[in-house]
Fold DUF294 nucleotidyltransferase-like domain-containing protein.
Amino acid sequence: MPSAFDASNPPFDRLTQQEIGELRAALDIGYLRPGEAVLTPGQKAEHLHVIIKGSVEVRDNGTLNAVLGPRDSFDSRAVVHGAAGEDFVAAEETLCYLIPRALVLDLIARNPGFAAFFYSEVSAKLDAFARAHRAESVESVLRARVREASRGPAVFLDGHATLTEAAARMQDANINAAYVREDGRIGVVTGMNLAKAVLLRGLPLDAPVREVCHYEVVEVDAEDFIFEALLLMTRHDKRRVAVRTAGEYTGFLEDIHILGLVAGNSQLIPGRIDRARSVEDLAAPAQDIQGQVERLHRQGVKVEQIAEITSDLNRRLFVKLFELLAPPAIRQHGCLMIMGSEGRGEQTVRTDQDNGLLLDGPVPEAELAGFREAFSGALARFGFPDCPGNVMVRNPLWSQPLDGLVRQLRLWIMDRTPEAAMNLAIFFDAVGVTGRTALLAEAKSAMAGMMRGERALIARFANLVESFETPALGVLSTLMERVGVASDAIDIKKAGIFPIVHGMRAMAMDRGILATSTAGRIEALTEAGAFSHDFGRELLSALRVFMEYRLRAQLEAVRRGALEQEALVHPAGLSAADRDILRDALRIVRQFREMIRSRFNLAAFG
């Protein structure tokens, strides 16, 4: 039987063939009776258990936290760190592989990849167990489509245009090549062609561009693979090839663009945003930002770094759009603010709009109305859906003078309903990105003053963490499978991200901490002694795990065209190692929710 041990099951897939042989030689098989306690809190484990058949319940002070099934292992903490943290009880007749503790410790010492499974911090586990589909390699770049690479606009010149005119058009578009129309033909002229024509051939600046272009156009289709474009570049000794989309020339693919697929385009996108001269010019870089998220994820970049890069690029986009659309009065007297995950710097795949406008006084109503509609409408065209709660510049409630917003904040504070509390939470995450950002600081200071000392009010605000349950991983799926129903899905945003984000908001508000990011709030609260440094690290680790799993779900939802499932994680589709990481993260969230309940006496709200 031990020879049938599945070594492809993480973390054992990180072992070498020799190590797998050692493991199989040392395996034993154990039988557990229904109701038999395998481990209790504080107990050291002599074996790492891997379930072959049956199931084991994981309980904490009687509360069912998880149900483990075939291929799941337990308890790594009891094996490595010397003491189990939970009760492990057989739910039915169960068979397990038993791996001796001494061998596990020896393998950990020899194999860093295997050792990662036993890290105490869940984010460290996640980093070490990044799956193969996240590893961006040269091979995966070559299999990308030409359309995935960044490229400049297609500029067309008439054959009689002068060399000076051609150079000016290319400079304005910030491109190195343009198309030339002459007698029904299409040719190509490059910056190098223009330079050689003047410097080496001595042509006058008013010579027609048709005299220096070439008509043997090397082209690829936008749906071709990158490796096909590279073959053409090599075969014809070219640094660029023309790109056709639906039969029309739409730009050029250059060697630098292919390099961008490997290194990411985050260094190229800001320039495209800055050079935009119209709202239409921003559409392409807005789409590039989203494509960048998937590329970075495939490269194995950490989710918090992806969020930081994406947030920075989105903010540049918003600032440029504001500059292009805002009339002088609004640019002079307004502050553009972003909220939600965008404001916290935790946005990855684009979700809905969360933005607003603060003014230091009245502006012409017609100009304000026009800007509201133009700004929100442009973002919608770029792929930012309307906010279901209408937290948008388009909504006069979220785009008004400072004194009006302060009055609105006071009304929300007095209202004391969940809806009002959520509006306060949304505003608490606001960040000013351009314009009179001091206005936002004034509004936040006023809000803090109104809530200072209002313990009952802040407790009601904190009670929003009870909006959604944090499930016990495996419990629902086990019940469903027993009656022949498909396994469950966990809404990772509601179950994991929201409780941490909002719990930190409430604690920060209670202590007058104005940090906006959740990581910043955790750091400030840790320094203030709200909880230990170790628990602060665990909370941040858990948040990053949830963000990573949500990002995977978002990218899959985008690929399938099922955006309504962008936060759903199916435990049955995860590897044993990923389920272990998710189980740890959910455990941390449940501990944090208990802390919030106790600190703010949430039981009083029923």
Summary: The chain has a mean pLDDT of 86.
